[in-house]
Automatic annotation (TrEMBL):
Coiled coil: none annotated. InterPro entries: Rossmann-like_a/b/a_fold, Universal_stress_UspA, UspA. Pfam families: Usp (PF00582). Transmembrane segments: none annotated. The lineage of its organism: Bacteria, Pseudomonadati, Pseudomonadota, Alphaproteobacteria, Rhodobacterales. This is Universal stress protein. Residues 2-143 form the UspA domain. Belongs to the universal stress protein A family.
Length: 145
């Protein structure tokens, strides 16, 4: 029995991430596991970048992302299922924050989405590939589209 299934979504792509979220919920339900859903915001905290943003920008961005994440989960899985989900908003590099969240949550499975790869993905490696390469637990990749 898994203790936690972590699903990573990009809230800027709700239509393409809905199937990923549904699959993660199915996998969690099969094992009686808690479903944690994470989204990652880029880090604008460097001094030379953060100076362009108003004070409190990060806190506002995290609140807006959390609200959007909760709405995505509610719309995709329903209010009753959403009530049992732990919603996490992290800030930083996507694959690093997904791995950190999985470790801190004690996740036994990470569910990520992958789009159809193009040449840039083969050269640079998308976040999903990095999660697969570096995760200490199993990773379930859902092909979007």
């Amino acid at each position: 029995m898994s203790s936690s299934v972590l699903c990573a979504v990009d809230i800027s792509n709700p239509d393409s991430d809905a199937p990923i979220l549904k699959q993660a919920a199915r996998l969690a339900d099969l094992d009686g596991a808690r479903l944690d859903v994470v989204t990652v915001l880029p880090d604008f905290g460097e001094t030379w970048v953060s100076g362009f943003f108003e004070a409190g920008h990060h806190d506002k961005a995290v609140k807006a992302a959390h609200d959007t994440l909760v709405a995505l989960c509610t719309q995709t899985l329903g209010a009753e299922r959403n009530a049992d989900i732990r919603h996490v908003v992290a800030t930083g590099t996507a694959y690093k924050e997904i791995l950190k969240t999985a470790e801190s949550a004690g996740s036994d499975l990470i569910v990520v989405g992958a789009h159809k790869p193009d040449l840039a993905d083969y050269l640079l490696g998308p976040n999903a590939a990095r999660v697969v390469r570096h995760a200490p637990v199993s990773v379930y990749v859902v092909r979007a589209g």
